[in-house]
Amino acid sequence: MSATSLDKTPVASAAPHFNETLRQRLLELRAGPTKENYSNNKLAKKLGVNSSYVSQYCNGKEFSGDLAMFERKLEDFFRNEARRRASGVETISTDETRAVCNGLETLRKLNEIGCMVIVSGGGKSRAGEFYLRENPLAIYFHVRSWNNDKNSVEGALFKAVGQAGWDGQTKRAQFLIAKLAGSDRLLIVDDAHKLTKAALQWLVDFWEETLIPIALIGTPALHDLLMSDTQRFSRIQLWNEIQPSNPRTLITHLATSLMPELNGELESVCDLGEQIVGHEGCYRAVYKQFKLAEEIRAGAKKPITSVQAIRSAHTKLLRDWQLN
Prior knowledge:
By secondary structure, the protein is an alpha/beta fold. Helices cover 53% and strands 7% of the residues. The longest helix is centred in the first third of the chain and has 21 residues, at 67-87. 34% of the residues are buried.
């Protein structure tokens, strides 16, 4: 889910019903050691709202905007923060993220529906996150095996844009069309190769009615899905296949983020990382091996080097090849 302007749907309330658990969580974050990262202005930019709403919410006495929408955005923000902390790796700009972001900008400017293909584990989801940081009005939907049907897509979009103005009788799709037609808001559909044909058709029909830009991001399997019915999906013309390149930058970032005690081994560790990318074809494999290696190194009874830990981790993962 991504940002929606709250200024258009003010719901003044003298006695708002705050989610106190959520509000206290925000207050604790703002009082913590990294509080400078969560000022009203910085947090408002992350949420895609006016900074006054952040101030009002923290104050807890009044709220002049759509409180339910604001709290949904805040919950989504905390989920993303939890994911970042759990991975232990901050998303950075790489050739891949820049290529994805450039492709998203092209679709946004042309108001087209198009595809971007990158191998699994090649950084497509991280690139989507990177784009959302600077473009909070974009709408983000991550397809999973349990939400890949057309009703789930429609429901997620309905939740993302909010129910303000809906009479409860109009079909959700018609309401969404009226809400988004001509808005130029980019809809990013991640792991689009998992969509059912009916869900993909829903998105094509929705694009025809609204002309909002839609980016379908997936693995090469997305090509097979589209070509299985070329007449139905012939409107999807823009295609951008992104090949991972210059892996050293991201591997270095993974190494320094996941393995803090390299002790002069950075170059050797990155050499091993490049071997992993070359054989496995994705950065996710490097992330998993480096993370496991650090667990092995930290838990070893006798001191071992990071290189030794990576080689040990290699034997504990599903690998059918040997490190040099």
